[in-house]
Amino acid sequence: MSEILHEGNLFHLRNRHISYVLYLVPGGIPAHIYFGARLESIRPEPLLRHMGVSADENFSIQGCALDRLSQEYPSFGLGDMREGALSAVGKDGTDAVDLRFVSASEENGKPTLEGLPATFGTDCRTLRLTLRDAHTGLKAELLYTIFDDLDVIARSARLTNDGSSTMWLTKALSLCLDLPDSNWELITLNGAWARERSIYRRALMPGEQGTGSRNGASSLQTSPFIALVRPGTNEDQGEAIGTSLVYSGNFTASVFVNQYGGARLLAGINDRCFRWHLDPGDGFQTPEAVLVYSTSGLGDMSRTFHTLWQQNLLPQRWAHKPRPVLLNSWEAAYFSFDEEKLLSIAKAAADAGVDLFVLDDGWFGHRDDDTTSLGDWHSDLKKLPGGIRRLGERVRALGIQFGIWMEPEMISPESDLYRTHPDWCIHIDGRESVTSRNQLTLDLSRQDVRDFICDAVAETLQESGAVYLKWDMNRNFSNIGSALLPPEYQAELPHRYMLGLYEVMERLTCKFPDVLIEGCASGGGRFDPGLLYYVPQFWCSDNTDALCRCQIQYGTSLVIPPSAMGSHVSAVPNHQTGRVTPMETRFAVALSGCFGYELDPTKLTNEEREALRGQVAVAKQTQTLRLDGRFYRLRSPFEGNETAWMTVSQDQSQAVFTAVRSLAQPNFGPPLIRLRGLDPRRCYRIVETGEIFGGDELMESGLLCPFPRGDAASLLYTIEALKA
Ligand code: DGJ
Fold first, then answer.
1. pLDDT for 425
2. How confident is the model over 333-382, as pLDDT tens digits?
3. What's the CATH number where 698 sits?
4. Which of 364, 474, 476, 527 most suits a substitution to test ligand 1, by most atoms within 8 Å of the C-beta?
5. In terms of Cα–Cα distance, which of 177, 170, 208, 244 is closest to 533?
6. Which of 83, 196, 207, 310 is the most buried (most CB within 10 A)?
7. Can you tell me which atom of ligand 1 is nearest the CA of 470?
């Protein structure tokens, strides 16, 4: 159970494992006192003295260096030299904000955040702290939610102009966490197209460090996640604080180490390209930031994120529902197909036991390459004489379901839509528009554009009878301007876009609750908790090479559960790297996520097609375990020649173990890999070898892994507990 203890000026949120404590220093500034392992009680005085403040004296800004005070929601410009969480330009043109305590209240559960995705649940308690700046009248309501059974604090802020004149928010972050020391290492996820989310870890240094995106999406280059870990923290032990934003647009996640050695963690909307206009009475809601705390290492931190997203964020009708094994046409056919070719692929997929055939890009307008037609969502009758309606019917007649690809947020300059509505894209009047992949971004801040998208998607789904939609998004923002926004509102566009996207997602998922939507953004370019609120799975990367996928999926798993990662077996030589890897390894790696295929099965040998049938059967047998199980990383591809991970059922009776060795190396014995998450008192059978081991033996001594010969070799074991 969670509880909020309120005694005098002290607020103590805690559950069985963690405590979060804040204190109102005299004058009403909320100071941060503690975040960490559960405490029975805490005296704020020593921590305040550590910050150079006495809780007893009559606190004044002059009497206490704000620069040393750990604060809950600080602003730059009043003596604190660190970066702040909030700034707002008022009528006098200055931008400092001095928030002082007004009131506090508590509630069971967790309020929704207007217009934004956020975690939900009744298994939690929320503290609402109301603060106000007397100079401008800016009011802040800080929400703190603590969960009963998860070591999580969720935070957000609602800002309201409670004054009498207009003001502009120029920074409105979701989270500030001031830590008393900086003996931490910072972990970020960074990468690029086809190599998303590599893990980077380095010691904190004085000054500012971190990550962020200004691309208009959480991006391929990074992820709205950072972790602080003590030196020596590994998968199984050590202190870790992870933070993740439930947001899909521009963000910042940074740590500032100041002159006193304290570390300030900040996360929220990136203030580049952000200025929000607030007339008296207007409000602004920040996205939610989630803090996870663990003393049991990175593995435990990740499992807390995974469980939180699974139980308290993902659309619940999908969270525990086995997903169809699908075959996607992209790498099988690209833009070059006709109805018969697609049907022959779908037929071979159906023969292998695949549940769903997905028609990717190229089915609409005159889309023979990526230069045209985005926005013209009507079938290309040259390729599909009966349109997507007849194709859908003929696919279903084969005994499998039909799914379809769209890129609804985009417009090709070479399209009827653009010719009719040249002002519907993001652009700056009078400037030449910069295209990327020959396309422009629709302006989702506009209601007419959002209505168009909802109608186009609805018509496509209805016409084709698709039960699955791959929602792609393949470029970042440029020429950031909207035809409808007045000049003083233009800097609101990036966030208004996200609000528009979330509105569209909300409308479509309500209208089509049974359609499974898989997110995609040139691969994993918007694979974040904000989108996971609407779509239960996301195409993890355009890179389908099994060895590259070991890194991409391992890095992604720091914050996202593998059960949400679209991962497919593709053909060799791999289309992204040219590498040839064994079919078994491609299968083992793809099986760790939302499993499917990205190849033309008609081009496989009979033997390979037979193998497909076996793979699909294994994927279906292990579906529930992989969806609901607990994920353990065992060997990091960033640290050596091997990758290993396993998923263990909640009751510890079953597990799937995957290990990959990148390069064959002569004259070494097979590695011993220590398993995790099993019951040490039970005995387990490795189904594929028939061997029986104690759970303790597998976890302490390790499992011998005799990889087959050759590069990119793998082992895939299903493990079952023996009946007692
Ligand atoms: C980018 C996606 O990541 C690919 O999977 C594919 O759908 C292409 N777009 C289609 O244009």
1. 98
2. 999 999 999 999 999 999 999 999 999 999 999 999 999 999 999 999 99
3. 2.60.40.1180
4. 474
5. 244
6. 196
7. 7
Rounded to whole angstroms, how far apart are CA atoms 354 and 612? 9
pLDDT at 586: 98
Which member of 443, 472, 545, 600 is catalytic? 472
236 part of the active site: no
Ligand 1 centroid to 283 CA: how many Å? 38
Interval between CA 369 and ligand 1 midpoint (Å)? 12
| Alpha-carbon gap, residue 325 to 323, rounded angstroms | 7
Distance 282 CA to ligand 1 centre (A): 40
Pocket probe for ligand 1: among 373, 412, 540, 542, the residue whose CB has the most ligand atoms within 8 Å is: 542
Is residue 552 included in any domain, yes or no? no
Residues in the ligand 1 pocket, defined by CB under 6 Å: 330, 360-361, 405, 472, 474, 520, 522-523, 539, 542
Distance, in Å, from the CA atom of 4 to the CA atom of 489, rounded to the nearest integer, reads 39
Q: How far apart are CA 461 and CA 472, in angstroms?
A: 15
What's the confidence (pLDDT) of residue 604?
97
Given the residues 380, 542, 545, 600, the one annotated as active site: 542
Give residue 548's pLDDT: 98
From 268, 288, 313, give the residue that closes a domain: 313
* Residue located nearest, by CA, to atom 1 of ligand 1: 522
Distance separating the N- and C-terminal Cα atoms of the chain:
32
| Omega before residue 666 within 30° of 0, cis | no
Q: How many domains does the chain have?
A: 3
The length of the chain in residues reads 724
So what's the pLDDT on residue 560? 98
Q: Whose CA is nearest to atom 10 of ligand 1?
A: 361
713 Cα to the center of ligand 1, angstroms = 28
CATH code for the domain in which residue 491 is found: 3.20.20.70
pTM value? Answer: 0.98
Q: In testing the pocket of ligand 1, which one of 336, 361, 567 has its CB within 8 Å of the most ligand atoms?
A: 361
Tell which of 539, 562, 578 closes a domain.
539
Q: Are residues 309 and 331 in the same domain?
A: no
Neighbour-count burial for 528-547, b at 16+ CB within 10 Å, e otherwise: bbbbbbbbbbbbbbbbbbbb
Residue 504 belongs to domain spanning:
325-539
Q: Which of 560, 541, 459, 442 is nearest to 501 (CA)?
A: 442
Same domain, 210 and 281: yes
- Phi, psi dihedral angles at 588 (to 5 degrees): -60, -40
In the predicted model, residues of the chain with pLDDT beneath 70 are: 54-64
Q: Is 472 a catalytic residue?
A: yes
Ligand 1 centroid to Cα of residue 494, in Å, is 23
Tell me: do 151 and 235 sit in the same domain.
yes
d(CA 389, CA 383): 13
Cα 705 from Cα 100, distance rounded (Å): 60
Do 333 and 295 share a domain, yes or no? no
* Cα dihedral across residues 495, 222, 267, 554: positive or negative: positive
What is the rounded CA–CA span in Å between residue 279 and residue 267?
Answer: 25
Question: What type of residue sits at position 243?
Answer: T
